Amino acid sequence: MQNKMIKNISFPNELPVSQRVEDIKKAITNNPIVIICGETGSGKTTQLPKICLALGRGLEKIIGHTQPRRIAARSVATRISEELQSNVGDLVGYKVRFTDKVSKLSSIKVMTDGILLAETQNDPLLKKYDTLIIDEAHERSLNIDFLLGYLKNILPKRPDLKIIITSATIDVDKFSSHFNNAPIIQVSGRTFPVEILYKPLRKKTNEDLEDIEDAVLSAIHDLDKQKGDILIFLPGERDIHDTKRFLSDQLNDQFEILPLYSRLAIKEQQKIFKISGLRRIILTTNIAETSLTVPGIKYVIDVGLARIVRYSPRLKIEQLLIEKISQASANQRAGRCGRVAPGICIRLYEEEDFLGRPEFTDPEIMRTSLASVILKMSSLNLGAVDQFPFLQPPIYKFIQDGYQLLNELGAVDNENKILPLGRQLAKMPLDPSLGRILIESKKQNCVKEVLAIISALSISDPRERPFDRADQADKAHLIFHDPESGFLSFLRLWHLFIKEAKGQKSKSLRIFCEKYFLSFSRMREWQELYKQLLQMTEELDYKLSNQDANYEQIHLSFLSGLLGNIGFKDSEGYEYLGTRGIKFLIGPKLFRNKNYKWIMAAEIIDTGRLYAQCIAKIDIKWVEKLAFHLADFEYSNPRWNKKLGRVDATKKTLLYGLVINPGKTIHYGSVNLLESRQIFIRTGLVEMEYESEAPFWKHNLDLIDQIEKLEHKSRRQDILINQDVLYQFYEKKISTDIMNSAGFEFWRQSVEQKDPKYLFLSKEYLMQKSADQIDNIQYPDRVKVNEIPVTLKYRFEPNHPNDGLTATFSYSALSRMKKESLDWLVPGMIREKVSTLLKALPKPLRTQLGPVQKLVTEFLSEADYEVNFNDALTSFIRNKTKTSFRVENELIDTLPKHLKINYEIVDEKGYEIDSSRDLLNLQQANKERISEVIEEVAFDIEKENLTYWPDFEIPETVEKVWHEETVRGFPALISENNFVNLKVLDNHSDALINHYDGVKTLIQLQMKDRIKNLKNSPPQFDSFALQLKTHIESDLLKQNFFDVVMDESMAWKKSIPRSQKSFDELVSFTKNNIGKVVVEYSNIMIEVANSYQELSLLLDRMNSLPKPIIEDIEEQLEILLPPYEKPLFLFEQFRNYPRFLLAMKIRIEKYSHRQSKDQDLFRDVGRLQTKWIEKVSDFVESDFEIPKAYIDFQWAMQELRVSLFAQELKTPYPISIKRLEKKWIDLINQ
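Above: the chain sequence. Below: its structure as tokens.
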């Protein structure tokens, strides 16, 4: 105790506060709380602790003296020690975040307000102090406001405690009333008068205001004749850099221009304290308002703006926006130039603007998150926040926001009661979010890594980026940059620094920091904080793992405290969608082009736009895992899951409005039992999606299937009861707690022990109307077509591809299926088909026919069902109307889909392969598939490389059972030029054509030498080929000549050979016949060639012939002598070619004498010719063979031309336009 006795305490006379020492002593002695309002320079900060010592305080206990900043705490302790002639740490000590210079000898303890606040955890009544001085209370930080309320609370329990509140500028009345009208002592300051000038920004011609840089330059020019340095207050760093660059260009080195802001490197900050030969201009943010005094300042230029930190409880982010400063701040700025001499302050705004501003800056408690305060209050059991005696109660939504954040972190429950995790957080000298991260790191076994990173996040960023060396800094920072995580970038930097710091002196570390553009002081601060937190974790028994943690472990830990800071990107561009509807950009330049889908950020700041700082790529599954207690869920699309036998739904998971899982399938029964039960009954049982081997289910399904088939056959939907009636049946019988298959089966088995048929339906219950008329005669299920088993399926579902009648059969029988066989449909459907067709007839025909239903009955009673349906109906209509009308495809196409048969082919297992209502298209589309079947089935008849007839008879058809089905094939000799192969084809017509060609090739092989000569050198070929070469190529003509000779030489009256005997007879016949055919054909070819040559010369001479006549003659030549394909016509017709060509010649020669008659005849012929070409083109385009009747009609057309244009040549039979027109009508009506 003796060591604490203080002697000879003196107070410097030059300090204004020294004049009021006795008044202050008296006030402290007589009152528990005293408010000292002292202006700048009054000496209150250093003298008040000495006054308390002089009163005998600080002997048994300690005088506590708080400062808002660490640097101030150190400098104040040093100054008081000097005045008391003591060393720091003895009589006067200080304690800041990383340093404790307080001993048992200390009577005065200078500390930050945060240190005092932390001590309330272990010493709620602050019993170690007998006096507390709360200095700079006007700053109204969150800590100060909380401390003032806390001290008011404990005063009744500490009557011995004296509290002194000091401030330079303060709302005195508010403080006094808060502390029960505590006495106020005013102390004057040591300041000189300051002249205030208002110079608002000028308006330009377009109503815009002039730039701030121009206004600042103009104000500097106004101060040109003055002496002394200029302090210019600007809103932020960017403004400082822009203004510095502008002024450097404009002032031509007349001034030394220096920046000053909090993130500026310490080395750069120190320059403002060094006086140089030039006048100085200091460009600063609001850091120079109160935190430090810049020497030599006589002038201030104030733009009246500052970046103010405001927390948005709605967006849960900090906003750092430019705002107008308060009157108090403006006066603080003006006071900066009245410290050493009278000064001038130029305000770049109107005086009216100044008077309209708020008197004081909003205290921090009105613009910051209250989570840490609420947590501390809850841990100290201080009651409800809104009941706490704050100097200025916080806004209710800020209180609610604080609780929401703590709930997000798991610190409080939904009733805002503190949880065990919250008590752990309260013991940590960390922001609650960082504390939550540290707690999670223990669980994730990554305490070592997380400690290093949260230490970095708790201080100002140690990375420096000088504006004029930004690119160099970015390049240096790449050394420890992690491409996926800003958090790991800090960890890499930490490892690099620790490695460098081992055994190194301070000078080497400074060089290291300069090399990598790092703040040496902040790196030291980081190191100290890490040590402090490490000590704390050891006390909390947190173990540090020897193994390095992986990416997931570290980021899961950080995500636990930063769930509100996640973002999602699903489109091009740079913007992320965050929680609570915000959109933000990535702040760090190195991460802007990464295109990560999901990220989290250490913080999101609003500086006019939202920017995420210190970001990392994350897996969204981590968010779902950690945020389950915060997530909102939306359920949609409840549906029956047939496989699992339950009702599922899509669950959308949202975190504060952000979709973190758009669609997860979940069991809906546990969410909504009633709706799940309804869906189970409706979809599972009524719509028959339920699967079970239960007897009731098999019975009910079978009954319903029978009745549905009756509906499909009759195309009615009024036989089976509607689904609502069936729903009511199950709904009444099934227990109310059943909503899935498992529960239903358990319940059913229990019920059926007493009543096995409890859930059985009856046919009478299921049928609304009788269906006796729907039987297997009217609607058969199976028929045989060409010995092909066909299953008939009925479907009544308009617009469905299979609506109507479907004929299903094996794809192996596709080639044998005939369309005509099923055109009669089934007895129950044919009446509607006939009725529909009759109603679609042209109106004149319908009028003649009479009542449709009576007519349908008559047709069906008389019809021969073995006849082609179209032919039968055509015949009936012709008999009734005495017309030549024919039922064509155009009329059939008007039928609705359900009256056109749908052909469906299936594989051997009954699965559909293909289907179509056009049988020909179906056959064409599956031709290769059918051929594959024939190839796969071994008929034991196939042979290869035959040059003579095989030693057995080749049947016209073969059959074999394949996969329990009879497959029919058609053997044929297939020509391969020098040999033939015996194969089985799937189509009878194709087989006949191929077999003929195969036989022809086999005959040629028996006549090798003769055939070779005939192919290479046909007799008299040069005689006719030379004259025809302008019309037909010689090689094509030679090939046609050979083909015609072979076909004509083989043309006997018997069928194509199927046996060796018949083949040998045909070979002999061909050998005997071929010579005669060659001579006759050669002579005709010469005659044709001569006629063609004469005709060509005549056409060249007759220049006066009209173009249509020339085109008609050329078209006739194309038909007779097609230059591009084999002749269409038979050899017997070729004998008539000379006469046809001569008739063309005569027509040309006579044309000039009978032009009018020729043109009339040409029109008549042309009309018939056009009709023939159109019809034949249809056959060709459909890939059908041209029927012989149409070929014969063309020969008749040639004879007609002879009769009309060269009557003297005669025709073999009477012919005329009228006869041919009648023949054409008969032809198309067949």
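The CA atoms of residues 1000 and 1047 lie 8 Å apart.
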